[in-house]
Amino acid sequence: MKILLLNPIDIHIAWPVKNDFAKYLFCNPGITFPLIARLIPKHHTVFFFDGFYHQISLKEYKDLIKQYDIIMLTIVDSLVALNYEISIKLIKKLFPEKVIIAGGIHANIYAKDWLGKGVDIIVKGEAENSLPQLIEAIEYKASLQGINGLIYLENGGIKETATQSLLDDLDASPIPNWDIIDFKLYNLMLRKKGYTAALETSRGCINGCNFCLVNSFWKKTQRYKSIPRVLEELKILKRYDVSQFAMLDDGFANDIDRDSRLLEAMLSKGLDFAWASFLRIDTIIDHPEFVELAAKSGLKRVVVGFEHTNAAVLKLINKGLKDGGCDEEYIKAMDVLKKNNIFTVGLFIAGYPGLKKDEKLKYSKARRYCTDARAGNYKALPSTFGYNNVSKNFDVENMFYHDARLTSSAQSSKEHFIFNVLATLDPVKYTILFDRRYHYREYFYKSLLLLFRQMFDLNLSKIKEFIVLKILNLPLKDKKQYLVKNYLSEDFINRLILK
Question: Of 33, 120, 479, 499, which alpha carbon lies 20 to 30 A from 203's?
């Protein structure tokens, strides 16, 4: 069989900023599809197409899909849900015989919804044990009932098999197949030379932030690959001329001792990489020696979830900081990162429901905590630890689809818009454009280039959409329905077919 591993192209593009803007700034191939490619039996033809970064026409996109028997998707977030559904509807309209398989956190949370939208089979949780059996069953037209970890359509109904147990030992997961990757598409902008890849050394997170899908999805567990196994993967990446990678661990440095030993091993083995990672604020404050070690091993950029500028809100969302989080502590963390020449992207949550005026997010504070501060709207998502409490006490929308211009809360909030306008216009930040450090300067060049391309890619349709979603005082349900009606209607899909 011919199997297409697919990141769909963006057919709906939000304006003035793309929904998943960060995806283009932290440009890496991920690890899911290289791993899946290794799980698929070798006698099948496997091709990975990354529509996030590989620009092709709609006609070329449809011609590509036509060649394959199975289309595999990984749906991880509500920000991408609308575009994934557009592609699913297009595929099923053009080629109803194609088998569409989906996995990922969002696909798992909303499994029955996705089955109703055109997906044929959902792989629950990890794919290592389920996927090889699934591909064999499809090849030989066998029953799926004996394969654990699946939700699927059969005879017009939904079937679900027993949950597949998680791997006890992550070393049992095969080494990703990087042969499927076109490395020329990716650049983390940490070094001038060499390709970009991704690295997974653990899965899950032991923290309990109530807005996060990761900890609830993995039930607050975190499992690790052995250090020799991680070193083996890094040596393999060197053979592909990879010089920089994104550390994908959601809970990186939760186990300081283990991760310190990993970094020390990288240094002792002479594994010279530049890399980027998530880091918790309390890790930076409590363990400055770990940050120094990480910098020596090649850490150039961190993404830190500061989440908010108000200590009461941090407590409300269960960030888990010992002192609640305050200006003094956050500025102390920034000093540690500056000392080690680490570029800091700070993430903040706007529009959390029920906040008082003096508890709102403030850019004037956030800009002191990081090199580049970015805010996203709060998303109410089932299966997060805080969803039941928030949905019980406030008028919030379940955000199956999300858009950068919408907030889950029905109460009006200008936090997101004001914060990001101030961040965009901040003149002090742009002095970094002239910084001698490559990884500082290139980040901002890329950021500005993406922003200006979007700003000038304007038409009447996008202006109207912006007015409806951001300016008009309409109920949130009406705004969401506007997107659904415009981009998921049979008429719209038919127009795509004719293009």
Answer: 120
Polymer length of the chain: 499
How many CB atoms sit inside 10 A of residue 64's CB? 16
Q: How far apart are CA 20 and CA 311, in angstroms?
A: 27
Prediction pTM value: 0.94
**What is the pLDDT, as a whole number, of residue 273?**
98
CATH topology of domain 187-442: TIM Barrel (3.20.20)
Question: Which of 17-21, 205-209, 297-301, 430-434 is predicted with the least confidence, judged by mean pLDDT?
Answer: 17-21
* Cα distance between residue 478 and residue 468, in whole Å: 9
Rounded-to-integer distance, Cα 395 and Cα 327, Å:
31
User: What are the phi and psi torsion angles at 163 (to 5°)?
Assistant: -65, 135
- The helix (run of H) or strand (run of E) holding residue 463 is helix 460-466
pLDDT per position as a tens digit, 267-291: 999 999 999 999 999 999 999 999 9
Crossing angle for the helix pair 32-39 and 130-139, to the nearest 10 degrees:
60
Average pLDDT, the chain: 92
**Can you tell me whether residue 46 is helix, strand or coil?**
strand
pLDDT tens digit sequence for 388-415: 888 888 888 788 988 878 777 655 567 8
Burial of residue 257, with CB atoms counted within 10 A of its CB: 0-12 exposed, 13-18 middle, 19 or more buried: exposed
Between CA 56 and CA 406 the distance in angstroms is: 29
Q: What does the block give as tokens for 228? A: 């020799």
Helices and strands (H, E) in the chain, number of each type: 21, 15
Greatest distance between any 2 Cα atoms in the chain = 63
The mean pLDDT value for 173-193 works out to 97
DSSP states of 6-32: EE---SS--SSS-TTHHHHHS----SH
CATH fold match for the domains 2-160 and 187-442: no
pLDDT mean over 465-487:
89
The CATH fold assigned to 2-160 is Rossmann fold (3.40.50)
- Residues 5 and 49: beta-carbon distance below 8 Å: yes
Q: Tokens 């914060």 correspond to what residue? A: 419
Q: Examine residue 16 and say whether the peptide bond preceding it is cis (omega within 30 degrees of 0).
A: yes
Question: What is the gyration radius of the CA atoms in the chain, in angstroms?
Answer: 22
| pLDDT at residue 386 is higher than 90 | no
What 3-state class would DSSP assign to 154?
A: strand
Domain ranges of the chain: 2-160, 187-442, 460-498
| 256-268 vs 288-296: helix crossing angle, rounded to 10 | 30
